[in-house]
What we know:
9 helices; 7-stranded mixed beta sheet; 31% helix; binds adenosine-2'-5'-diphosphate
Amino acid sequence: xxxxxxxxxxxxxxxxxxxxxxxxxxxxxxxxxxxxxxxxxxxxxxxxxxxxxxxxxxxxxxxxxxxxxxxxxxxxxxxxxxxxxxxxxxxxxxxxxxxxxxxxxxxxxxxxxxxxxxxxxxxxxxxxxxxxxxxxxxxxxxxxxxxxxxxxxxxxxxxxxxxxxxxxxxxxxxxxxxxxxxxxxxxxxxxxxxxxxxxxxxxxxxxxxxxxxxxxxxxxxxxxxxxxxxxxxxxxxxxxxxxxxxxxxxxxxxxxxxxxxxxxxxxxxxxxxxxxxxxxxxxxxxxxxxxxxxxxxxxxxxxxxxxxxxxxxxxxxxxxxxxxxxxxxxxxxxxxxxxxxxxx
Length: 344
Ligand code: A2P
């Protein structure tokens, strides 16, 4: 008899879903039973799971009692409809969308920071995976927050097109070719041309004239750091990079802390690589450091010369991996613990 762990990946044909499948394999889940779920239009397709090809099943028809865990990454609307169904069937959900992130009774988890919230959860629990920009910023600043407190953060994000899924990547590729062949560029996934451009609006506008993407940085930072007083003033910008988000972070601590102390904290922090080498060949960029990597990279660490408790950082991370799929798999791994696998 087999009592293999059964995992459903919802949105398995998408950019994040595909990454979830490969990161599951990398993290020791290769012998699990996998259900690859997508919409009806993907019926007949297969997805790769290690050395196996798995046939796509239609989400709408799926019986979630066939899965112990479900990783959702098929959009907020899909999660709102199907996550409660999965949970009611006793399937534990790790949801990568914003559908449940603000619910008080649903933990919002970055394992390096608040894995304690995963203890004692039962089958059918829902855990929310934070937004990509939040995850990488918090991996970088949580060590400072824990020791010196943070009053406020000014952050400008430079976000890659994979954050908008496959259609975002296809649009950048298509528009780049069109521009270079002197053809008209027709925006579709993004409101403005993305090739050779920077778009200062991600997600919908809110009543306060911030975008939802920007406000997620505020809401999720407060919740994860358990710090309602922390202020996050964000501007989120889409740029023509395929993988990896970059962030210019300017923060003010509550208590004095030297840059030397911050350096030490960062070198000891999990999931974080502090790059101190300032030579040209070591410059930290999304393409050279973030894309395809697990760690969040921090560089340009320096005192803000305009504020005695100000600290500046440049933070890059792979938005599809640590910003989404890897963080979800780390949550899964923490919850499963030693109970993993297991053919009997
Ligand atoms: P499909 O490919 O069948 O449309 P991305 O963010 O890269 O665009 O991927 C979105 C993922 O979410 C895809 O796997 C997509 O499946 C899936 N998806 C989107 N809407 C639904 C839905 N209503 N039901 C099931 N899967 C969905």
